[in-house]
Amino acid sequence: MNPNRKKKARTVDLSLQAKWLLLVNGLYVVANALSGTFVNVYLWKVKNDLAMLGWFALYQQAAMALTFWLCGKWAKEGNIMNCLRTGLATAALFYLVVLVLGSTAVQWIPLLGIVQGLTSGFFWLAFNVLYFEITGPEDRDSFNGWAGLLGSAAGMAAPWISGQLIFRLKDVNGYRLIFALSLGVFVAAFFCSFLLKKRKAEGRYLWSFGARIVRRKNGVWRRVLPALVAQGLREGVIAFMIPVLVYISTRNEMKLGNYSLVTYGVALFTFLAAGRYVRPHRRKWAMLIGGAGMTAVVLPFFKQVSYGTLLFYGVGTALFLPLFFIPVTSVVFDLIGREQDGGANRVEYIVVREVAINAGRIIGTVVFIGVVSATTSSLATNLLLFGINLSTIAVWLLLIPWLGAKKGKLSGMKGS
Q: Chain centroid to CA 163: how far?
């Protein structure tokens, strides 16, 4: 076989609209990466309280889940592009509020959490619907790989820049600058969203759709929804806990920026490789290796939680996360696409998906708050980290019937 032909066969071209969607997503990720890593550190420095950070995350997750469910009607029956732009505008508002509140922000944890939850709910609902409409089974893995690549590039460079600015501008002024920069990037993303075509509204929104698909006899969603909840268990805690642990270990924002530079630098290459080589027939074992690897890299914490073991965890997660994330995302959207009502009720399916993931995040965060409120034992914290990472194996076990399945098998197993 001609090697050039073989290489071409592995490359999947994305449509222009898919590229514009990646641009908007990339700007959104850059803005969050500039400040998102440091928001929790900023709050921690004002008030050394892990439970407070848990409550901040919990308000955000609850508001996000509710926003997904309520705004599903707007996304389906109204203008989905306005839903996307509202998310970007609300994100800019969040950082404006943080700038105005300054050190008194810790007194407004419910407000900040709810505003950030609204931001995520509006944006990710619209983004996922657009992603489903713009991509198909043939280019979905490629899109996810590019999205992960851009996210890794942003996560590598932006926090490092932020850490340098905070260190050189002496703390408070540095935080003000990075929050202002995030606000500006969100505004840029808002204007770039006009490059995306307006999507036509179709049908009426079904409020109780989630209960309806669960009641289907022999339907896939009785296994898929618990898998999504299990996926959220890890995501809800890791996002805010690891950066704070790195800061507690170093007491230096520049080192936290360096940590992101290294870990996301590794993720950049692994997402690029995984996006190119993880195809439907390879999803089963790729996902198992990814989940097992992410669980194994927690083990050094049982000996000592230090910058070194945290760096080992970060690099290990960067190596294994793409192998887990790309298959689990692609297979769920493929299953939606193969449902008979997948096109007509795509908004409802995406709302159900996101609410399930957020339910898992909420459960994980509630457990985190309970653990850190009850004990300061490092063993308890390490067991929590190990347990929530182990949930990735539960996701794999629940989704096995459709990982690597051929089209006919997927079609034959869908709900009626």
A: 22
